[in-house]
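Example record used in the benchmark description.
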Amino acid sequence: MLDSESGYSRYEMEELTLGEWLLGCAVRAFVQRQAGAAVRAKQHAMNVAVANARWRRQHPTRWELALRRLLREAGFRGQRYERMFGRYSVDAYIPSHRIAFEADGHWIHEVKRESGEQEARDAYLMTEHDVLAVIHLTKEDLRPFLTS
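Model output (structure tokens):
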């Protein structure tokens, strides 16, 4: 029979000194708190990513609006544009073709491209989420689809 507080059997508790027993309880409590903190931190990061994607979906940039117009004119009507894949989001995703689109009009995309983060994210999308391709469209690609 295990002691519910310490996790030791009654036989093991008879062999332990009080100090060893208290130390074991303290170590287990610390490990459980640390594991809980890691889970909470991971959940918080996911909540932040989802909230950011929701805000971006409601407040698209002019380049994302141009991308949506391009896709509508190409015949992809009624698509839900912003899509989350784990902690990453893409500007548009066509599920029937498994293709993701990114409007690289903002300066942050240039920073991500230079740091290699963009390539790592694209590889993650293709390996973990079965996306066939991630197409990055620049300002020059999207300029004809800007609305005035």
